[in-house]
Structure formats: C-alpha cells, structure tokens
C-alpha cells in the first residue's frame, strides 16, 4: 500500500474504534489532513462512524468545499475540521464527538483535568468554547468557517477543547494520537464524575502529565492500544496496513 492508502484505512479504523468504544454513536466524525496536500483534509461523507468505509471518504479544501462530491451528502460541521487545520500546521488529525460523560464538564464550572495516568495526554487544562459568546443563540452546530475559526482560537495550542452543551474536539499529530486522547478523555471524565462524589480529587501534577504524555506518545505504546482497539472493532487485519 502507498502512504495515502494506508492512512485511508487507518481513518476507517479510527471511525470504527471510536464507535466501538462508545465515544461516538450515530453522530461525530474524525478526519486527517491530506498526506500530500496540507491545504486539504479527508473526512467521510455524512454517515454514522461505525458504518464508514474507504468509499465514503471525501477530500475537502480547508474551506470545506468537496473536491469530488459525486452526489454524496456531507457533514454540516466540516468547519470544525477546516478551522483547526487552517490555524494549526502541526495538526494532522481531528476528532469531534458528543461523549455524554464529557458534556457535563462543558456546562459547569468544574474543570475537566486528568486524574488518572492514561488521561495525561489530554493536557493539564481543557478550555471550554461557548458558541453563544460570539454568535448568539444558535442550534450549537458549527456550520460556518467563522464559527470554526473561533473554535480553533479557543483550542489554541491545546490538544482538547470542550464545546458547551455539545461535545468536544481533539486535535493531534496522528490519527492514533487523537483516538487515544478521545478514548481516555471520556474514561477520565467518567472516573472524575465518580470521584467527585467521594470528596476532593487529587489530580495529576504538571510533571506527571509531562512524563506520562511522553510515554504515551511513543510508538510502542500507541501500537499496543491501537491493536487492542482495532481488534475489538473488527479491524484486526488492518493493524499493519494490510
């Protein structure tokens, strides 16, 4: 397989993993920056992530215009992806999801911070973007590039930003990185909700976050998690790009 084919297969696998792990359901999406055209990205046609296959993948400009639509329907929230890729040259993959365990932290004053080791790569601070601040009353969907760019500004240099009453975005340097961060963001949110019922929570220190993130970014750690998740999602034969 050439590099593009391998990455397309990984993008399909990422969709299936996120669905299998309960991070997305009928809604939510994941994209990659085009490996040969940094001014474009690749995202599925409008379809539930668990059903996405290679034939569903479409190429877009950063403005969200399809290169070859072929009559296919498209996700309305493409500006999430375009806005982030436009603002961040370092970002090569983006996830948008509506994790129900994460959303409570987007509508309360309680911050979503890592309190167990595998959530370290979500970062010491997770900003919250509120579409109402600059766009008034909407349906909360990010449907214009102005909104996508505003979200990207809130994300800044972080890996994760919550979206008030909506969900979150996760950005990173590889598809495996954003999948890992998305899964453990959700797990951490669930653990934190339970821990807050018991009393004061002891969060990871900045040094612990830095040390553990470095460990999680090693290929050996990512490959181990990816193989496990891909197998659970029925994509074991795609782990090595077959």
Give an overview of the whole structure:
With 242 residues, the chain is of the alpha+beta class. The chain has seven helices and seven strands; from the N terminus they run αβββαββααββααα. The chain has one domain: L-fuculose-1-phosphate Aldolase. A seven-stranded mixed beta sheet has the order 3-2-1-4-7-6-5, with helices on both faces. It is globular, with a radius of gyration of 17 Å. The relative contact order is 0.17.
Q: Give the low-confidence spans.
A: none
Give the SSE order as H and E letters.
HEEEHEEHHEEHHH
CATH-defined architecture: 3-Layer(aba) Sandwich
Shape: globular
CATH-level-4 superfamily name: Class II aldolase/adducin N-terminal domain
Q: Which CATH top level class fits?
A: Alpha Beta
Distance between the termini: 8 Å
